[in-house]
Amino acid sequence: MANELDEMSGPVNAAGRDINVIEKQLPVRVGFGSTLFEILLWLCGILPGIIFLFMKIGAKNYFMQLQQKIQADASTIDNYLEQRVQILQNVAPLVNKAIDLDKDVMKSVAAFRGGHLSEEARNTVSRDLDRSFGRLFPQVEAYPELKAHKAIADAMQQNDYLQREITAARSLYNDTVNQWNADVFSWPTKQIVAARAGYTTRIPFTASAETKARARETFF
């Protein structure tokens, strides 16, 4: 039998294909078949019904714990973002005479004070930080006396480190979200519990259009 997907003979799209994260949460639903399944378990005897009842309790507890894991992963991202905010706030006064930073961006960044952020707010803060650092450090490169400043040099190293940590934290967050999205459709126990609780799928980290456009630029 021939392979359904043959990477040797195509078809291929020579122009390539860009992808985007779909901003949509899918509700978890079950039909009458799931209800019938539960009824049949009880009709087969009290023991199968009780066993499945405890399985549903375990699934409910599992989802509650997984939600806390998602919150913890999101909080880790926030912590790294807050550290980048502190770096920016500490470095900006040292170079304010040479660099005219975007005041609106700085106000948005300065408003960040930790705590829980929505995905939209987290992406906004991250985008504003990238924009500020994107204007800050290239300007520093143009001023040898600034580039040689120890505090600024340390800040540049810390920023590089935090960027890598944020990327790793986002990957961890996406892994947990992917686990949630798979489990809520795991029939019968988890899907039935998820549907009865009104759960939906979750949206993984989304890069802004500005960030994706910058990634296509020539850096060297």
UniProtKB/TrEMBL annotation:
<keyword id="KW-1133">Transmembrane helix</keyword>
<feature type="transmembrane region" description="Helical">
    <location>
        <begin position="39"/>
        <end position="59"/>
    </location>
</feature>
<dbReference type="InterPro" id="IPR007156">
    <property type="entry name" value="MamQ_LemA"/>
</dbReference>
<keyword id="KW-0472">Membrane</keyword>
<keyword id="KW-0812">Transmembrane</keyword>
<dbReference type="Pfam" id="PF04011">
    <property type="entry name" value="LemA"/>
</dbReference>
<comment type="similarity">
    <text>Belongs to the LemA family.</text>
</comment>
<dbReference type="GO" id="GO:0016020">
    <property type="term" value="C:membrane"/>
</dbReference>
<protein>
    <submittedName>
        <fullName>LemA protein</fullName>
    </submittedName>
</protein>
<dbReference type="InterPro" id="IPR023353">
    <property type="entry name" value="LemA-like_dom_sf"/>
</dbReference>
